[in-house]
Design goal:
By secondary structure, this protein is of the alpha+beta class. The chain has three helices and nine strands; from the N terminus they run ββαβαββαββββ. The protein has two domains: about 60 residues, Ribosomal protein L9, N-terminal domain (Ribosomal Protein L9, domain 1, 3-Layer(aba) Sandwich); about 80 residues, Ribosomal Protein L9, domain 2, CATH 3.10.430.
């Protein structure tokens, strides 16, 4: 059955995509949840409107990502953790910790999945992290890890 997707469906497609799915999947999952509509002549006219709306939303999100990346570029955040006398942390600093602190500093929500670090940060000192806000928009930040007294 051919359906048009009214919402993003993981593993199937994005809003406005026309997909060929099994009849059972469409009848039992997509249609009852309002995630898709069966293709008819009237629905085809709706497709054009959905695609335009999708492009406008993507452009707005991209512009917001660029603006946020400009705020974050070169920023330094300070995080604290308990460490031994050699400077090794008892508990590592993760992407979620960095994202939480950056969200507070920038005044906008930054998901933990947007923060990219090589492994967990397990020592006191300066570390680099990248915030990937969109496929082509990123900002490099510095994470300063300090030992709690």
């Amino acid at each position: 059955m051919k359906v048009i997707l009214l919402d993003n469906v993981k593993g199937v497609g994005q809003v406005g995509d026309i997909k060929e799915v099994s009849d059972g999947y469409a009848r039992n999952f997509l249609l009852p949840r309002g995630l898709g509509k069966r293709i008819t002549d009237g629905v085809m006219k709706e497709v054009a409107g959905l695609k335009i709306k999708k492009l406008q939303v993507q452009a707005l999100e991209h512009a917001q990502s660029v603006e946020l990346a400009a705020k974050l570029a070169g920023a330094t955040i300070a995080l604290q953790g308990k460490a031994n006398e050699k400077g090794t942390l008892f508990s590592s600093i993760s992407e979620a910790d960095i994202a939480e602190q950056l969200s507070k500093q920038a005044g906008a929500h930054i998901p933990a999945t947007a923060v990219v670090i090589e492994g967990h940060i397990k020592s006191v000192g300066m570390h680099n992290a990248r915030v990937q806000l969109a496929s082509d928009v990123s900002a490099d930040v510095t994470v300063e890890v300090q030992s709690l007294p």
